[in-house]
Amino acid sequence: MKKNIETELVGVKEIARRAEVAIATVDRVLNNRKGVSAKTKEKILGIIKELDYKPNIMARRLASNKTLKFAVLIPKVSEETDYWKAPLEGVKNAASEIKDYGIIVDIYFFDQNNKLTFSTEAVKILEKDYQGVILAPMFEEESISFIQKCYIKNIPYVFINSDIDEQNSLCYIGPNLYQSGYLAGHLISYLISEKQKILLVNISKEIDPHHHLLRKEEGFRAYFNVNHKENDLIKIDIKETDYLSVKQKIAEVLTQTSIDIIFVTNSRVSSVARYLEETGQSHIKLIGYDFLEENINYLKKNVIDFLICQKPQEQGYKGIMALYNFLVNSSAVDKQNYMPIDIITKENYKFYKN
Amino acid sequence: MKKNIETELVGVKEIARRAEVAIATVDRVLNNRKGVSAKTKEKILGIIKELDYKPNIMARRLASNKTLKFAVLIPKVSEETDYWKAPLEGVKNAASEIKDYGIIVDIYFFDQNNKLTFSTEAVKILEKDYQGVILAPMFEEESISFIQKCYIKNIPYVFINSDIDEQNSLCYIGPNLYQSGYLAGHLISYLISEKQKILLVNISKEIDPHHHLLRKEEGFRAYFNVNHKENDLIKIDIKETDYLSVKQKIAEVLTQTSIDIIFVTNSRVSSVARYLEETGQSHIKLIGYDFLEENINYLKKNVIDFLICQKPQEQGYKGIMALYNFLVNSSAVDKQNYMPIDIITKENYKFYKN
DNA sequence: CTGAAAGCGCTTACAG
DNA sequence: CTGAAAGCGCTTACAG
Question: Domain HTH lacI-type: where (chains A, B) (predicted)?
Answer without folding.
Answer: 10-64
